[in-house]
C-alpha cells in the first residue's frame, strides 16, 4: 500500500513537472530576452514589469482597484448576457426539438443566424442601442444564444425515446414531460452549450469595450495602447485571462455537481 | 380480481417513414385473459416489439382495436407497465428515485412511496443500492431496477420486450424464477416477448407464435405444466419436451425460408 501510494505520488509529481516545464521555459525565455533588450519594450516588456515592477503593472493596477472595478464591469456584462441567452436558448432549443411549429419557425433562423460573426455587428448595435451596457449585453445575448440553442436542440432531439415512453406510461403528462424528463435527459448537452457560450460572452464584451469604451477590461487595454503604455495592455490581458479561467473552472464545477450521474 | 384482460381485434400497423410504407402487423386478433402469462415468439423483424408498443399505447394502430377490460386504449396508461430490453432507467435518478417515480406521479406521499419502493427494491435483492445511479449498476441489476420501477406503481398488465435477452444464463434463470414468483403473488397479466423458445415455454401458460413479416398470429400452444415443481423436474418431463417441440417446429417453419437466404 505505502509503496504503491509513494510511487503514485512521485509519478504524478513528475507528470505535473513535465506538463508545466515547457510553459516555464517560455516564461523564463521571455524575461531573459526582454531584459537583455532584444525586443523593443513597447512590443513586449519584461514579464516582471508587467506583473509587478511598474506603476501600471498587474499588481499595481489590482492594488489600486482599477483592474478589480473594470474586471467587475466586464464580468457583469458578460454574465448578464450569458444568463439571458441561456434562458432564451434553452427554451427555444428544447421547444424546437419537441414541437413541429417551433422547429418550422426556428430552424431556418438558427441556420442563418448561427454562422454570422457577431463581432461584425458591434457597429450595428452601436447604431441601435448606443455604446452603453444595454448595447453590450444585447450583443452578448445574441452571440451566446446560438450555441446554447443549438446544443439544447440537438441534445433534446437525441433524448432516448424509451425514456419518454417510460415516463408517459408512469403517468407523466405532456406538459410535465419537458421538466421531468426531457430537460434532465438533455442536461449534459445543454451544459456543453453553456461551456461553449461562456468564452464567447467574454470575447464579445471585451471587443465591444475596446471599440465603444464605457469602462471594462477591454477599455483599459485599448487605453494602454493609446497612451503607449504597453505594460497596461498586458496587465489587462492577464486580468481577462484569469477571469476567463476562473469562470470556466466554476462552470466545470457546476457541471460536475449537476451531472454527478453521468 | 378480474382486471387486466386484453382484447386485440383485427390489429394492423403500417409504418410510414419518408414515403415508404412498411406493414409490420397484419390483421392480428388475440385475447389475453386476466392474470394470464402469455409469451410471444416469432422470427426477428416479425413485429413483436411493434405489437407490444401498440398495446402499451406508444404507437397508434393503423386499423383494428386494442381494449383493456373492454375499454379501448387511448395512449399510454398506468394500467400497463412496460419493461424495456435496454432498461430505459432515468440515468439522473438513483435506484430509489427511479422506483419512486411512478408513485410520485400518482401523488403518493413521500413516506408511503419510500416504503413501497423499498419493498420492491428488497424483493429484487437490491437493498444497499438505493442511492446508486444506473451507471454504477451491472446489466442484471439495471434490469431488476427496471422491473421494480414498473411493479412499484402497480400496473395490472406487464408488457415485457425481451427483458432478459442481454443477460447471462444463470442470471437469466434466476430472474425468470423471480418473475414467476411475482406473477403468482401479484396476480398480473403478463405479455412476454422473447426469441428464446425455452424461455417462452418455461415461463408461460400459453405461447403465441407469430408468422414472419408482416406478423400476425400463427398459432398458440397451451403450456400445461405443474409449476409447483422445481425447474429441473419441469424441464426434464416428457410433456414439457413435447410442448417445447411443438413451439419450436412451428417457429422453425417461419424462420426456415429466411435462414436459407
Ligand atoms: N419506426 C419504424 N419505422 C419503419 N419501420 C419500422 C419501424 N420500427 C419497426 N419497423 C419495421 O417493422 C417490422 C417489425 O419490427 P419490430 O421491431 O416490431 O420486430 P421484432 O419482431 O421486434 O424484431 P426483433 O425480434 O428483431 O426485435 C420490421 O420489418 C421493421 O423493419
Ligand atoms: Mg423487437
UniProtKB/TrEMBL annotation, chain A:
One Pfam family name is: BPD_transp_1
Listed A to Z, the keywords are: Cell membrane, Membrane, Transmembrane, Transmembrane helix, Transport
Q: How does it sit in the membrane?
A: Multi-pass membrane protein
Write down the Gene3D superfamilies for this protein, in alphabetical order.
MetI-like
Location in the cell reads: Cell membrane
Q: Where are the transmembrane segments?
A: 20-43, 50-72, 78-97, 109-131, 177-208, 228-247
SUPFAM superfamilies attached to this UniProt entry? MetI-like
Q: Which GO cellular component term is one of those annotated?
A: plasma membrane
Please list the residue ranges annotated as the ABC transmembrane type-1 domain: 71-255
Q: Does the keyword Glycoprotein apply?
A: no
Give the record's GO biological process terms.
Answer: transmembrane transport
Q: Which PROSITE patterns match?
A: ABC_TM1
Hey, which family's this protein in?
Belongs to the binding-protein-dependent transport system permease family.
Q: What is this protein called?
A: Binding-protein-dependent transporters inner membrane component
UniProtKB/TrEMBL annotation, chain B:
Task: Show the CDD domains listed in the entry.
Answer: ABC_NrtD_SsuB_transporters
Coiled-coil annotated spans: none
Query: Which keywords are on file for this protein?
Result: ATP-binding, Nucleotide-binding, Transport
List each copy of the ABC transporter domain by range: 6-237
Single Gene Ontology MF annotation: ATP hydrolysis activity
**Domain of life from the UniProt record:** Archaea
| UniProt cross-references to InterPro entries, sorted A to Z | AAA+_ATPase (IPR003593), ABC_transporter-like_ATP-bd (IPR003439), ABC_transporter-like_CS (IPR017871), ABC_transporter_ATP-bind (IPR050166), P-loop_NTPase (IPR027417)
Pfam families given for it? ABC_tran (PF00005)
First and last residue of the signal peptide:
none
PROSITE patterns tied to this protein: ABC_TRANSPORTER_1, ABC_TRANSPORTER_2
PANTHER family hit by this protein: ALIPHATIC SULFONATES IMPORT ATP-BINDING PROTEIN SSUB, TAURINE IMPORT ATP-BINDING PROTEIN-RELATED
Protein name per Swiss-Prot or TrEMBL: ABC transporter
Amino acid at each position: 500500500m505505502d509503496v504503491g501510494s509513494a510511487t503514485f505520488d512521485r509519478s504524478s509529481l513528475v507528470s505535473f513537472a513535465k506538463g508545466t516545464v515547457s510553459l516555464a521555459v517560455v516564461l523564463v525565455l521571455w524575461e531573459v530576452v526582454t531584459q537583455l533588450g532584444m525586443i523593443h519594450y513597447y512590443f513586449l516588456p519584461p514579464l516582471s514589469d508587467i506583473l509587478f515592477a511598474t506603476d501600471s503593472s498587474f499588481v499595481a493596477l489590482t492594488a489600486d482597484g482599477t483592474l478589480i472595478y473594470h474586471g467587475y464591469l466586464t464580468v457583469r456584462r458578460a454574465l448578464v448576457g450569458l444568463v439571458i441567452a441561456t434562458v432564451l436558448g434553452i427554451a427555444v432549443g428544447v421547444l424546437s426539438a419537441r414541437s413541429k411549429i417551433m422547429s418550422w419557425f426556428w430552424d431556418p433562423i438558427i441556420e442563418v443566424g448561427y454562422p454570422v460573426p457577431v463581432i461584425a455587428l458591434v457597429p450595428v448595435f452601436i447604431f441601435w442601442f448606443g455604446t452603453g451596457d444595454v448595447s453590450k449585453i444585447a450583443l452578448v445575448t445574441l452571440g451566446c444564444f446560438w450555441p446554447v440553442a443549438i446544443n439544447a436542440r440537438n441534445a433534446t432531439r437525441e433524448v432516448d425515446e424509451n425514456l419518454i415512453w417510460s415516463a408517459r406510461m408512469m403517468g407523466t403528462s405532456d406538459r410535465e414531460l419537458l421538466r421531468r424528463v426531457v430537460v434532465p435527459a438533455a442536461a449534459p448537452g445543454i451544459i456543453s452549450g453553456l461551456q461553449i457560450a461562456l468564452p464567447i460572452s467574454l470575447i464579445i464584451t471585451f471587443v465591444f469595450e475596446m471599440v465603444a469604451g464605457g469602462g471594462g477590461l477591454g477599455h483599459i487595454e485599448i487605453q494602454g495602447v493609446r497612451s503607449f503604455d504597453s505594460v497596461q495592455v498586458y496587465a489587462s490581458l492577464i486580468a481577462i485571462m484569469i477571469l476567463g479561467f476562473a469562470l470556466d473552472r466554476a462552470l466545470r464545477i457546476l457541471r460536475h455537481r449537476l451531472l454527478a450521474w453521468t | 380480481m378480474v382486471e387486466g384482460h386484453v382484447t386485440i381485434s383485427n390489429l394492423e400497423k403500417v409504418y410510414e417513414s419518408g414515403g415508404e410504407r412498411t406493414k409490420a402487423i397484419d390483421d392480428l386478433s388475440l385475447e389475453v385473459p386476466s392474470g394470464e402469462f402469455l409469451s410471444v415468439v416469432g422470427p426477428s423483424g416479425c413485429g413483436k416489439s411493434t405489437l407490444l408498443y401498440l398495446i402499451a399505447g406508444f404507437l397508434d394502430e393503423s386499423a383494428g382495436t386494442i381494449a383493456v377490460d373492454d375499454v379501448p386504449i387511448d395512449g399510454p396508461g398506468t394500467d400497463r407497465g412496460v419493461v424495456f430490453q435496454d432498461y430505459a432507467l432515468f440515468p439522473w435518478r438513483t435506484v430509489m428515485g427511479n422506483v419512486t417515480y411512478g408513485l410520485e406521479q400518482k401523488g403518493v406521499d413521500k413516506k408511503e412511496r419510500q416504503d413501497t419502493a423499498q419493498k420492491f427494491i428488497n424483493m429484487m435483492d437490491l437493498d444497499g443500492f438505493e442511492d446508486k445511479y444506473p451507471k454504477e449498476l451491472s446489466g442484471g441489476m439495471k434490469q431488476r431496477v427496471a422491473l421494480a420501477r414498473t411493479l412499484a406503481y402497480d400496473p395490472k398488465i406487464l408488457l415485457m420486450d425481451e427483458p432478459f435477452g442481454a443477460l447471462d444464463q444463470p442470471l437469466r434463470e434466476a430472474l425468470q424464477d423471480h418473475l414467476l414468483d411475482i406473477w403468482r403473488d401479484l396476480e398480473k397479466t403478463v405479455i412476454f416477448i422473447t426469441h428464446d423458445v425455452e424461455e417462452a415455454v418455461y415461463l408461460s401458460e400459453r405461447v403465441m407464435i407469430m408468422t414472419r413479416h408482416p406478423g400476425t398470429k400463427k398459432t398458440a400452444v397451451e403450456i400445461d405444466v405443474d409449476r409447483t415443481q422445481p425447474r429441473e423436474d419441469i424441464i426434464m418431463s416428457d410433456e414439457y419436451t413435447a410442448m417445447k417441440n411443438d413451439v419450436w417446429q412451428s417457429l422453425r417453419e417461419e424462420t426456415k425460408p429466411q435462414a436459407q437466404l
